[in-house]
Design goal:
- It comes from Camelus dromedarius (Dromedary).
- It is built from nine helices and six strands.
- The chain is mainly alpha-helical and 388 residues long.
- The protein has two domains: 200 residues, Cation efflux protein transmembrane domain (Alpha-lytic protease prodomain-like, Up-down Bundle), CATH 1.20.1510; 77 residues, Cation efflux protein, cytoplasmic domain (Alpha-Beta Plaits, 2-Layer Sandwich).
- A hairpin with a 5-residue loop joins strand 4 and strand 5.
Length: 388
């Protein structure tokens, strides 16, 4: 029996018979007997955070609401509380004054309450992690909440426009000028307070995907595009529309208080300022539809992104370039990069991803690196899309 060998705390005993040593009856045969180790088997290595990351902006995804969305949640909660209090006051004041314009303003506040609560729900829903079914997570629920807010305001405004038209046709109504004036004054103060709460000044200028403003680095210090939270922006636009209407109602109430014979100013102000409220939602609706239709982000151009990728050393051509957004601040990009045979694919991937993150603020980039082939110049799928 040969001596035993000990390695790393586990003892191994090996027995070799004479036949095993090379007898004429057969080849070499080894038989090993292992004794149990005196130490427990080592546990499987646990995943540790790497000191580098190959293609992700952040080493780990951020859990819960981002600071921007936490601020949006606080703004919406405060504005919703103010809105509920003053909406109840306008309902009572409008009923006592028999004013359709006051009731119109109260109905707009009701629509704002519903939209803000929907936005708060969408903010909570967007914190849910990604799944195999919802691979991007629930970020787009914020955009859907903004769309629901705009649609609800349009529906309520349409009903009130119809009632104002009926009042213009029939003059069998009476308005209490004093109650209307008092309620309209309070409504103006309420809308000013909500506009102050929902106003998004935004943090200092940043080129990152989490910043509230963005301007491409290669364009120099130009005009920034305020983005902010979609839900808060939609609510702020609603409040601005309500503020304009409240000022119109206040002007009409002053006229009716001193000249009761001009009571037609009540439905006329409802008619005019409801149209203004509808127009004020057009920019928000345009941005929401752009996101839902997978359009290129408004703050990012197709040509600058393409040129930035082509400027990466080793990249000969790029195709299948797609740019879209999940929200106004969560931008996504994907592309195929055709590189030289001598280029290092890992270096090209790292450099291209870094440029997309730092210059354009993309939150998610998916790049495919492949060898350049001359046939790509004639490939229909490799051609750039035409201008819109």
């Amino acid at each position: 029996m040969e001596p035993s060998a000990t390695t790393g705390g586990s003892e191994t005993t090996r027995l070799v018979s004479p036949r095993d040593r090379g007898g004429a009856g057969g080849g070499l045969r080894l038989k090993s007997l292992f004794t149990e180790s005196s130490e427990a088997l080592p546990e499987e290595p646990k995943p540790v955070e790497m000191s580098f990351h190959h293609c992700h902006r952040d080493p780990q995804p951020q859990l819960g609401l981002t600071p921007e969305r936490l601020q949006a949640q606080r703004q919406l909660c405060a504005a919703c509380a103010v809105c509920c209090i003053f909406m109840a006051g306008e309902v009572v004041g409008g009923y006592l004054a028999h004013s359709l314009a006051i009731m119109t303003d109260a109905a707009h506040l009701l629509a704002d309450v519903g939209s803000m609560m929907g936005s708060l729900f969408s903010l909570w829903l967007s914190t849910r992690p990604a799944t195999r079914t919802m691979t991007f997570g629930w970020h787009r629920s914020e955009t859907l909440g903004a769309l629901a807010s705009v649609v609800s305001l349009w529906m309520v405004t349409g009903i009130l426009l119809y009632l104002a038209f009926i009042r213009l046709l029939h003059s069998d109504y009476h308005i209490e000028g004093g109650a209307m004036l008092l309620t309209a004054s309070i409504a103006v103060c309420a809308n000013l307070l909500m506009a102050f709460v929902l106003h998004q000044a935004g943090p200092p200028h940043s080129h990152g995907s989490r910043g509230a403003e963005y301007a491409p680095l290669e364009e120099g210090p130009g005009e920034t595009l305020p983005l902010g939270n979609t839900s808060v922006r939609a609510a702020f636009v609603h409040v601005l529309g309500d503020l304009l209407q409240s000022l119109g109602v206040l002007a009409a109430s002053v006229l009716i208080y001193f000249k009761p014979q001009y009571k037609a100013a009540d439905p006329i102000s409802t008619f005019l300022f409801s149209i203004c409220a509808l127009g004020s939602t057009a920019p928000t609706l345009r941005d929401v539809l752009r996101v839902l239709m997978e359009g290129t982000p408004r703050s990012v151009g197709f040509e600058p992104v393409r040129d930035a990728l082509l400027s990466v050393p080793g990249v000969r051509a790029t195709h299948e370039l797609h740019l879209w957004s999940l929200t106004l601040t969560y931008h996504v990009a994907s592309a195929h990069l055709a590189i030289d045979s001598t280029a290092d694919p890992e270096a090209v991937l790292a450099e291209a991803t870094s440029r997309l993150h730092s210059r354009f603020g993309f939150s998610c980039c998916t790049l495919q690196v492949e060898q350049y082939q001359p046939e790509m110049a004639q490939c229909l799928r490799c051609r750039e899309p035409p201008q819109a």
